């Protein structure tokens, strides 16, 4: 997936001195090469591929790969944003070539746009790439026009790149769940993936200094459960970003507990998405509607103030194919 020249360059960093590594790092955006990085960068894509093999052969139902460095900013010929090799993109290509899959869903819930993954698959209709990310009308890194909602892919891949840009900070559980219910899940049921790969960044968790969002760790358990209804439960999560170490660990644990089938803890408080979130959701639905039947018949408007009700075990609703998602989550007056 990465060019031979780029792979050789990364391999060659093992023999470089400190000054040479600093000079090489300066050629890329927010990348820091170390002598040991080459070994780690080549080892962890292998761990991700082992997870894919285990899930697709039935050895494991699902799983999570704890990898470093992360990968979703890495492009075919360039490191970017702390990322050297694109672990999830490599896994998707591997699943197609070795296991013969034809439909793979990548869900990138990191707070940053995974532009590397988007560039790699933007003309490929066999990979549906979904990313929500802090955008602020292009004023947040990576500052790309192509991170906006109207960037839907190219050529045969039009409609298979789905960007949901958050244009203000402070998005919380209700906003993220609404995005799943009103954008991702309708598309996912229509796409009918054979494998779900999660670029599992946790820098949108409340308290993370980089993301400045307000998602609680428990929300990631709910999001994971919603994805487990797809692809016969064949879900592989791969660690991306996260800058609050304690809450990063807690969020990872919540994700793993959901993968293991444990009930998700209740999400407390009113599950009412904010106006900015609804505007972003409606924009991406409008951009994608020409490409997806499931988005052509429903407007998303701000619901009245309802109390949330996920049920006694904290399990989110399961949407059957073709069904309309409830507004703002399950509701009781």
Q: What are the salient characteristics of this protein?
A:
333 residues; alpha/beta; Arginase, Chain A; 6-stranded parallel sheet; two-stranded antiparallel sheet; 9 helices; disordered C terminus
How is this structure best described in words?
The protein is an alpha/beta fold and 333 residues long. It has one domain (44-332): Arginase, Chain A, CATH 3.40.800.20. 35% of the residues lie in helices and 11% in strands. The chain contains 9 helices and 8 strands. The chain has helices spanning 4-12, 18-25, 37-56, 87-99, 115-121, 173-191, 217-227, 245-259, 275-288; strands at 63-65, 104-108, 127-134, 161-166, 195-200, 235-239, 307-308, 331-332. The strands form 2 sheets. Strands 1-6-5-2-3-4 form a 6-stranded parallel sheet, sandwiched between helices. A two-stranded antiparallel sheet has the order 7-8. Helix 3 packs across helix 4, helix 6 (173-191) runs parallel beside helix 9 (275-288) and helix 7 packs parallel to helix 8. It starts with a helix and ends with a strand. Mean pLDDT is 90; it is low at 304-320 and 323-333. Belongs to the histone deacetylase family. HD type 2 subfamily.
Spell out the blueprint of helices and strands:
Elements: H1 4-12, H2 18-25, H3 37-56, E1 63-65, H4 87-99, E2 104-108, H5 115-121, E3 127-134, E4 161-166, H6 173-191, E5 195-200, H7 217-227, E6 235-239, H8 245-259, H9 275-288, E7 307-308, E8 331-332
Parallel strand pairs: 1-6, 2-3, 2-5, 3-4, 5-6
Antiparallel strand pairs: 7-8
Helix pairs in contact: 3-4, 6-7, 6-9, 7-8
